[in-house]
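Section 5.1 Outputs to date
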Amino acid sequence: MIYNDPEYRIMGDGAFLVELGDEIGVEVNKKVRELFVALKADPFEGVVETIPSYRSLLLIFNPLETTFSLLQEKIQHLLNTLDPSQLPEPKTVEIPVVYGGHHGPDLEWVARYHKITPEEVIRRHTAHTYHVYMIGFMPGFPYMGELPEGLVTPRRETPRTVVPKGSVALALGQTGIYSTQSPGGWQVIGRTPLNLFDAAKWPPALLEMGDQVRFFAINEEEMREWQQ
């Protein structure tokens, strides 16, 4: 549900959270994106950074330049005057993936969990369009949903200490892509040759909040071609 009025949560003397709803969903996430885009286009004096998430926006500010009360008034006014038609259209990105094998070591487990074949896991994963709710955990890592009911999968009982860059994975109702090598507890079903984050580019992340993503299967030879 989207709140009629946002809830504000103080996060120390230089930050507060603007909560716009009480559940994860595309509509409340769109409202967060509207607020985020508006603040990027015309930032408030004293605001250092804005960080969007599923249903809320974190504002970090300099308490020597502004106050929570003043920013709360400005946020309320901005929310009352937002024009959804001014929100840029999200882009649709197609992501190639090599599924299974050493690229997707958990594909077989996911198939057994759902009592289907690995090929059916791949079919279900590639048949759906995913909404990028937020970027987090590491630079460029997209949290995307929702998985079709037949792919909702628990996290690994024991996280891996190393998950390779580009790994495509599942956790509960979400799918994501590891933008760099890191530890992780999601079920890895494949890997993409695309680079999700490049600090030398602008914007550095391939995907942004609000984008729509579709996966498609490729083979090892095609992966080498993409990498070249």
